[in-house]
Amino acid sequence: MPSDPDDSQISPPRERNVLLLDLSKSMYAPLPDPQGQGPERQKIEVARTAVFRILQDAAATGTLFGLVTFTETVRVPVPLGEIHRENLPYIENLISLLTPSGRSAIWDALGVGADLLRMGTQGVQGNLVLVTDGWDNASTRFEVRSEPVGKPPGGKVDLVPYMLPAHSRLTLRIIGIGSGDERDKGVDTNRMNQFVGQLGQRAQELGLPPAFSFQLVTTGSQLFAQMVNAFVDVGYEDDRPIEELHPEELARHAANAARALKEPQQHATVSRIRGAAGPASSPESTYSEAPDLEVEFLTSGPGGPPAYLKERYGPLGEVVSAYLAGDLDRALQLVQRSQGFLPAVTRLYWEARIQFARRAVVEAARALLQAWAEAEKLPPTAQAPVLRRLAVLQARMQNDKETETLVRFIDETEHHLTNRDPKTRERLMDLFAKLMELRGTYQLTRLAGSGDVQDAAVKHEAAVEEVFGLLQDARLDLSAEGPTVEGALDFIEICLAEMR
Which of 9, 59, 423, 468 supports an S-S bond with 83, CB 3.0-4.6 Å? Predict the structure, then answer.
């Protein structure tokens, strides 16, 4: 695929994701249910469900996404680009019509995927995810060589250097379906491991970061979880958006939230979220194998639960759907069956929330305590939004309105700004982080000895004034950003006044 002549002058976008999906005939085969309690689902059915979810995420975040499918022929049903919500029905209909047939041109598909991510002299820039259940048996353009020999006349192109030219920043994740022990019984495990090793060696030679992995899955639940990893949440019935609050209500909420900052002994949950007010860095890849959890906040309007929960979120969607429908016993059964394939913190969060709704307080507290422990294991880049959701639930369970209000405002602000200018979002979240830091200097004014009280008070007032100055600068720069930003700034200012 030829590159635009000006590509070499363009900095790579933050996220460029291409999914390569095997559509060979073997994708019709079923995958077992890990608990033996549900019907087997075809590989292609599970993969379609995951693609629906990935498309939703791409439309919500504005990241670039492309889809490549392959049998013995490689096609690009969704070219790399921004996914717009108004185009989703058309694209989803297209995905639903994908039909497996024929053999697998895996190496040719990887070559096309690399072409979609190629950026002139910057090489290949972005994330590739390959989902396959077979062995390469149909490629005509590319090959993966056992030995680095020169290209024979009329022969195939060596895929490794083609995918990884100099200056590239490529992440490749291969999700292999099946046992991998025999041909036609699953993915070619040995060849895939050799391929990943060759890419790693090539990256080392070029001084590039190695970011290549191969993951084997044997059940439908594992396949979905590896393609899509999420921490889905829904709002509470009495939640009201920032922009809908009357100024007097906003002031009352902010004053209550400030008490959570001023009284840590009575609001211990605030200390557990530490730096969770700050902006969480996006993982390098939407499909990272590491337990980076993306928090997606769903709202349920007058028309009922969001559409396509089961289709787009798989087993977790079934849990959320039953919860929203008020069928708490079924929701609990579903979430307890999910141990083999949902991230632990997601499963435990929902178990705690469902138990609390069932008024099983002891069981809810036990599950939430385990969820906190699992959240502590997450990478720092993934912790912040997850810790905030746990904090809101714990505050609900303890009837701690002050902590709930504080954390919810931080969480809601970040959620509303997901598709806005990243600098605006980062600036507001930084202000919230600095507001949280004032807890420390405020407590020094209460805990200092008699001779140090004045010094501690001076330091605290200086810290408040610093944040207030940053707030005023933000008001001037963000005056046209709309009611959500204005409400968040008002909230921070009232909290600051209470912290004096």
Answer: 59
pLDDT for 455 equals 79
**Residue 4, SS3 per DSSP:** coil
CB 166 within 8 A of CB 124: no
Mean pLDDT, range 119-141, rounded to an integer: 91
Question: Strand pairing partners for 128?
Answer: 18, 172
- Specify the length of the chain in residues: 500
Please, what is the angle between helix 361-375 and helix 344-357, to 10°? 160
Rounded Cα–Cα distance for residues 370 and 412 (Å)? 25
Q: Do the beta carbons of residue 256 and residue 266 sit within 8 Å?
A: no
Residue 30: CB partners within 8 Å, gap ≥ 6? 40, 41, 42, 43
Q: What is the pLDDT of residue 497?
A: 85
Amino acid at 235: G
CATH fold label, 7-227: Rossmann fold (3.40.50)
What's this model's pTM, rounded to 2 decimal places?
A: 0.69
pLDDT exceeds 60 at position 116? yes
Q: Where in the chain is the domain with CATH 3.40.50.410?
A: 7-227
* CB-based contact 65:55 (threshold 8 Å): yes
Q: What is the pLDDT of residues 391-412, one digit of tens each?
A: 999 999 999 888 888 888 888 7
Highest mean pLDDT among 34-38, 156-160, 237-241, 435-439: 156-160
User: In the predicted model, what is the mean pLDDT of residues 150-164?
Assistant: 80
To which residue do tokens 């969001």 refer? 306
Single out the residue of 177, 176, 136 nearest to residue 41, CA to CA: 177
Nearest by Cα to 225 from 176, 287, 284, 296: 287
The tokens describing 476, both together, are 């001037």
Rounded CA gap, 439 and 461, in Å? 12
Beta bridge partners of 118: 124
Residue whose pair of structure tokens reads 């178990």 in the numeric block: 351
Q: Which residues pair with 78 in a beta bridge?
A: 67
Residue found by looking up tokens 């108004």 in the block: 86
- The span from the CA of 346 to the CA of 168, in Å, is 34
303 confidence band (pLDDT: 50, 70, 90): low
